[in-house]
């Protein structure tokens, strides 16, 4: 490699470096993270359904939802037919997010579990999910690896370690608009008071949104909102079969939450539907009994806008 060539490359790289901040500013000025932040500033609560693939996300958008949540449990159920006990890898989740992003344009919130490791792992997770299309990354304070005898338990790391993860996630963002949501599960093992203490610490650390999971006392929920609701957006989780006293989006909005998740709605409906269809098909040997309820092949393709997609290819015909 000649000195002249090296000199030309150096000059060109220097020019790129001078315009890179402006390029980044333009690229991020209308980012999905900023779009989510704008939604959270609206008076109405942001209701977000859990999705697990491009089709479930597509139907959520067609129903009118302005954001979706890639649920770790829904991914575990649909990809592995296993419970949500940290079996999925970070790359598997990123792949799911990328497939969903290719099909929809609304902001995507992504369940990052514990960040898939320590603070340095959290940074890689945030960048991977951003590149895949995440508008928000949710990190929790559960231990990354749980005892094999009790993989569904919820032991938590120290508050100090979680604060370090939050700061690492904030520093790692490629887009300053990306929302870092901090979740605590401390109420299950350490009690509601500790969960609220951690919520304050997470907000102090700079988390863009705070999620306290597992509060079952309405008085503690009201205290959380009173303490932090004007400082940072708060997220509530509504899961059928869980013990929260707040079970509707309107109730969560009245209390002062900014975002409400319905992580299991789609996957639970899908599991119910598939189980019913398979049992009936095995018993009857035909599909007549549920043809009036299910989309047929033509109806499914219409719902996914297949005719429009195929029509668009004609303009590229040779």
Brief rundown of the structure:
With 318 residues, the protein is α/β, with parallel strands linked by helices.
Reported for the largest beta sheet, the result is: 8 strands, parallel, barrel
Tell me the domain tally.
2
Kindly provide the radius of gyration, computed on alpha-carbon positions and rounded to a whole number of angstroms.
22 Å
Helix and strand element order? HHEHEHHEHEHEHHEHEHEHHH
CATH topology of the largest domain: TIM Barrel
Poorly predicted residue ranges: 5-29
CATH class categorisation of the largest domain: Alpha Beta
Structural category is alpha/beta
Rough shape? globular
Q: How many extended strands?
A: 8
Q: DSSP strand (E) fraction?
A: 5-15%
**Mean of the pLDDT scores?**
90
Distance between the termini: 43 Å
Q: What is the CATH superfamily classification of the largest domain?
A: Phosphoenolpyruvate-binding domains
Strand order in space, largest sheet: 1-2-3-4-5-6-7-8
Helical segment count? 14
Name of the CATH architecture of the largest domain:
Alpha-Beta Barrel
